[in-house]
Write a structure and sequence with these properties.
This protein is mainly alpha-helical and 326 residues long. It has 16 helices and five strands. Helix 6 runs parallel beside helix 8. The longest helix is centred in the middle third of the chain and has 18 residues.
Length: 326
Amino acid sequence: MRVVHLMICVVFLAACTNEPCRDSVAPETVILEVDRLEQELFKCKSAKEVETLLSSHADFAKFFLHSDQYPADSILANRMFGLIQNPSIDTLYQESIDAFKNFDEVVRTLEDGLGRLKVFYPQTPTPRIQTAVTGLYNDLFISNEHIMIGMDFFIGDDASYKPQQIPNYILDRYTIEHLAASILQFVSSQYITTGKGDQMLAEMIDYGKSYYLLSKILPCTPERILIGYSESEWRDVFENDKIIWANFVQNEWLYETNHTIKQKFLGERPNVYEIGDKCPGRIGRWLGWQIVNAYAQNTGASVTEIMAERDLNKVFNQSGYKPSGS
């Protein structure tokens, strides 16, 4: 079973906007079942009722609340019942309900995205969605069978209480608008064959393939949302793509194998200061995406062919990538 916790593997996505949609395939019909467990939990009048609720949703209790770490189910039930009596949690609950008032739109986006993924990969699973408010205990758990969402992590800027363990530049992307794509990027990642070699270019192209696939299954989601850039960051990277590319070429970063150095350009950082104070983090991922886009345009390779390609030199050389205006 493949799982993800968003605090460990953060990826960033969103629901559709009025921007023009990109070309893609028509989705197959997918219907996702949704359990709004926060509503059931906050209706409980005793710890015994909570225990009964958790017993009827044993996978949620195990994977999201880690019930297997408690010597008895009653201990977790008492903890959760005490939690919902806390006035601060009531505030989180009400704010979560407000933030998720349009959650049906997120569900439809997930259904359409999974439906398109099934066109490319018919074996794509149809997980069950479960939502909850747990006092900022857990944010997101994904497997082939489940999508579990801690709503209180995704309230946004207006939240009275925010998770303390997440840097602000990442927390900015913890909104319901980014939720569908985060989930679908993880679900779709299992269909990406990683490239050969330990050079930075290999990892750049792997990330590029991930965003390329995501853009195909979420064609109406702005691309800047898929990678988690603000409007200004998205505009700046294209306006300065010649400078970005020149830095990678002149410093021979494409062929860097040192993990620490690679992480400066691929990992989570507020900015890549080695290029410029305003260069956003994960710039190597963005650049890999542009290379994969160029490869797809130049070769006409299908989505599944691109995802299966392991030869990074083939992708890079046949992409003919050049910054805009070059």
